[in-house]
């Protein structure tokens, strides 16, 4: 493997060609020498993922783009170094696996799982600084830049090495769990579907509906066991793929983990990267860096995306029109999705690009309570998602995936869901330092909703 970062790949691209462009959300380090030394060290460290895995993900996303698979992407808004510990990793993996099982069953389709994990540390901010007790501090930019504590707000290059090693430890444990049987469909303490009593679900009608889905799902699993389809030697049933992803925000860090393999450039720090809604300018540094990568890439698409920008953006990121190379992760808000999505679908249809359409119903639905707590309403999340499914169908397009901020832990950050969390409950276990997430039950609520949607699609009469 050639790990130099200087050879040009497509046309005039190189892993550092972004440096000639305007880079938004950049971090100003005081000690440039220390930064250079850290980046040199990162450039020597071994990759965290292999290009074989990235090629496998590319293949799977091509199938999503061709409507043969569904994509589930989820995890924390801001991953913290502290989450690199066995319980948070296990609970996040568990909720993603359980959601995907419900989606596989409900959609009768294979599901590709991408965790926002093992590197989701850097955060874009609307303001670079904040005032606390009359004093100005650098805003918290994520654990790979600075600390949440006011005394640790100066950007520290050593945190980039911390990001690498925490990502490595996280991904190592994810791999160990998956290859050790954590994903086995019948593993009692991980799936445990038979024990579910839905005690958290307040409404008896919803509880009965969910219980029916779980009973039927368990029936299917029993049937598979009866016919031997769950034979442990059959890897497709015992094990699953779990890919990692993060926002590719800190271009110095991303460049230092970019490697040339078989004449192509891969970011081997993660399987999948996306460009945030604030950094996707056609002539900006982020789009420039992303256009040279072999990894599949995502772009967040919000209300400020002009339909006429989509074609040129896709021409840059996907010059060979390869299905699934680009995922458009739409995030408008429940009250805006109907205004913007149809024109965005039409703009992409007018090109030769086959994208994955993915709905992020989180980032357009953030609000603050009267007392200033950042939250989201489950109903708004569900509404944006439901509308996205419907609009794609009406436009003869297909929603290929979903993107959530979630955790496997019992946090109280999002209002609503089947447990009917109230605004007054938010203080009970509000943990996030960035955006509010779905908790374990709310995440499964969403998976059941999608399963129900697919059921209705298969037998529309039932839902009339
Ligand atoms: C995020 O995904 O955490 C985020 C900041 O999203 P967006 O770029 O869509 O605002
Ligand atoms: Co977020």
Automatic annotation (TrEMBL):
Catalytic activity: D-erythrose 4-phosphate + phosphoenolpyruvate + H2O = 7-phospho-2-dehydro-3-deoxy-D-arabino-heptonate + phosphate
Cofactor, how bound (note): Binds 1 divalent cation per subunit. The enzyme is active with manganese, cobalt or cadmium ions.
Transmembrane segments: none
Major enzyme class: transferase
GO molecular function: 3-deoxy-7-phosphoheptulonate synthase activity
Signal peptide segment: none
Names of the cofactor(s): Mn(2+); Co(2+); Cd(2+)
Cross-referenced PANTHER family: PHOSPHO-2-DEHYDRO-3-DEOXYHEPTONATE ALDOLASE, PHOSPHO-2-DEHYDRO-3-DEOXYHEPTONATE ALDOLASE 1, 2
Protein name per its UniProtKB record: Phospho-2-dehydro-3-deoxyheptonate aldolase
């Amino acid at each position: 493997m050639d790990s130099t970062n200087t050879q040009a790949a497509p046309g005039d691209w190189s892993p550092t060609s972004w440096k000639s462009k305007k880079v938004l959300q950049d971090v100003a380090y005081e000690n440039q020498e220390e930064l250079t030394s850290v980046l040199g060290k990162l450039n020597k460290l071994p990759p965290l993922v292999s290009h074989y895995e990235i090629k496998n993900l590319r293949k799977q996303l091509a199938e999503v783009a061709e409507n043969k698979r569904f994509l589930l992407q989820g995890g924390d808004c801001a991953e913290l170094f502290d989450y690199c510990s066995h319980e948070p990793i296990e609970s996040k993996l568990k909720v993603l696996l359980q959601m995907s099982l419900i989606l596989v069953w409900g959609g009768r389709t294979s599901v590709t799982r991408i965790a926002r994990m093992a590197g989701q540390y850097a955060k874009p901010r609307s303001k670079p600084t904040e005032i606390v007790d009359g004093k100005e501090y650098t805003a918290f930019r994520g654990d790979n830049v600075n600390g949440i504590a006011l005394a640790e707000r100066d950007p520290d290059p050593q945190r980039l090495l911390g990001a690498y090693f925490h990502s490595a430890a996280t991904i190592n444990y994810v791999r160990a769990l998956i290859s050790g049987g954590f994903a086995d469909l019948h593993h009692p303490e991980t799936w445990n579907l038979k024990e579910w009593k839905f005690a958290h679900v307040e409404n008896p009608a919803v509880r009965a509906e969910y219980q029916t889905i779980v009973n039927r799902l368990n029936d299917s699993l029993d049937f598979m066991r009866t016919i031997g389809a769950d034979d442990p030697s059959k890897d497709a049933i015992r094990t699953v793929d779990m890919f990692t992803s993060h926002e590719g925000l800190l271009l110095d860090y991303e460049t230092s983990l970019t490697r040339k393999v078989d004449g192509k450039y891969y970011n081997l720090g993660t399987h999948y990267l996306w460009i945030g809604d604030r950094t996707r300018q056609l002539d900006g540094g982020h789009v420039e860096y992303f256009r040279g990568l072999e990894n599949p890439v995502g772009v967040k698409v919000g209300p400020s995306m002009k339909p006429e920008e989509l074609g040129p953006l896709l021409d840059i990121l996907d010059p060979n029109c390869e299905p699934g190379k680009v995922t458009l992760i739409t995030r408008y808000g429940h009250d805006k999705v109907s205004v913007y999505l149809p024109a965005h679908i039409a703009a992409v249809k007018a090109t030769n690009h086959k994208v994955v359409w993915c709905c992020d119903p989180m980032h357009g639905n953030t609000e603050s309570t009267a007392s200033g707590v950042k939250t989201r309403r489950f109903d708004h999340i569900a509404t944006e998602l439901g509308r996205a499914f419907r609009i794609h169908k009406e436009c003869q397009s297909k929603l290929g995936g979903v993107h959530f901020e979630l955790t496997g832990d019992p946090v109280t950050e999002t209002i609503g869901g089947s447990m009917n969390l109230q605004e007054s409950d938010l203080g009970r276990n509000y943990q996030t330092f960035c955006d509010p997430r779905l908790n374990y039950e709310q995440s499964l609520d969403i998976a059941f909703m999608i399963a129900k949607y697919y059921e209705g699609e298969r037998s529309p009469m039932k839902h009339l």
